[in-house]
Design goal:
With 331 residues, this protein is α/β, with parallel strands linked by helices. It contains twelve helices and seven strands. 44% of the residues lie in helices and 14% in strands.
């Protein structure tokens, strides 16, 4: 960031603050050199530790341009052929459209609106597409339509209530067993990723705030009604006085007696169950996909708690404006 000619003066000073703190420079000297107070300096370092370089960027800068020049496009194609994402400080070594988009924005202050532009660039670099196949479970279309019809008025009512928090919830299991994401490679090359023969799991409870796009993720050892109650108690600390409307599925640990007792005792939590076998109705599913893509896919996982903590930290520091029944934080 300091050496990048496109960085603003504010961004350069913020990066210098982090480096000076790391070098144990006295606060008075940091203030003299950068203009940031002791409190501001530690806030900047905290933001960097949570979000990386993104946490130091200047939000006052103008919006990115939309198109690369011919020369810039040629440079991107060349770096795809000769470099790895790890050369640019990403966590793993395979190109995805998300990483390419982020790199183009960092390098050239250019932002594309659709993935099609990245597909064109990747094809020009003679990359081919690799993705494991998937099989989706069947769902009852009539049941889903009936659910949509009955749930939409409840959602609209909750949206109009300032003191009502709308959350969509789901759980996922993070494992040391390697999961794979589609990647682009030069023609004739195929990926080989080390996998573990020792399986350890951690469960993640995730709640997406539909009104704001804020995620609340919690790491647990497994899923049951007792743990669900503990997670709900933590959620209540975040929203101590608000009415909470939770959309979630009909898993046993949601319907369990202890969970129902907690909800009844709270008196300000309402739950709506998603239809069976219709995960696409739950925007939290997209949050999992985003998190796996950015943190967990296509890598050997040796320490399950380390990757789970990183996964939760990423989710809680990010915003996800995914839609529920056609409504999202960006609506």
């Amino acid at each position: 960031m300091i050496n990048n000619s496109k960085s603003s003066g504010r961004e350069v000073r913020r990066a210098q603050v982090v480096l000076l703190l790391d070098a144990e420079t006295k606060s008075e000297m940091i203030t003299t050199l950068t203009g940031y107070s002791r409190r501001q300096s530690f806030d900047l370092r905290r933001s960097y530790l949570q979000k990386g370089i993104e946490g130091l960027k200047d939000k006052r800068k103008g919006k990115p341009k939309e198109l690369l020049t011919k020369k810039q496009r040629e440079e991107v194609i060349e770096l795809l052929k000769t470099k790895s994402p790890k050369d640019y400080h990403y966590d793993w070594g395979y190109w995805t459209t998300g990483i390419i988009g982020d790199l183009i924005k960092r390098q050239y202050n250019v932002q594309y609106k659709s993935k099609t532009s990245f597909y064109v660039i990747l094809r020009q670099a003679k990359f081919t597409y690799h993705k494991p196949g998937r099989v989706y479970r069947e769902r009852n279309e009539e049941e889903v339509k009936e659910w949509q019809k009955s749930a939409k008025p409840k959602l609209e009512k909750a949206l109009s209530e300032k003191n009502t928090i709308i959350l969509t919830e789901d759980e996922m299991i993070l494992s040391t067993q390697t999961t794979f994401q589609k990647i682009w490679l030069p023609q004739g090359e195929y990926p080989k990723i080390e996998i573990s023969n020792k399986r350890q799991n951690r469960s993640i409870y995730g709640f997406l705030n539909i009104k704001t796009g804020q995620e609340h993720a919690f790491k647990t050892k497994w899923q049951n009604m007792h743990i669900t109650v503990k997670v709900l108690k933590e959620l209540r600390k975040i929203y101590p006085t608000q009415r909470i409307l939770i959309f979630w599925d009909g898993a046993g640990w949601h319907r369990g007696s202890k969970v129902q007792e907690f909800i009844q005792k709270d008196q300000n939590i309402e739950t709506i169950y998603f239809p069976r076998y219709a995960p696409e109705e739950n925007p939290q599913e997209h949050v999992w996909k985003n998190g796996r893509s950015r943190v967990a896919n296509n890598q050997f996982i040796e320490n399950i708690d380390k990757i789970a903590n990183k996964f939760v930290q990423y989710l809680n520091a990010s915003r996800f404006p995914y839609s529920l029944l056609g409504w999202s934080a960006d609506s």
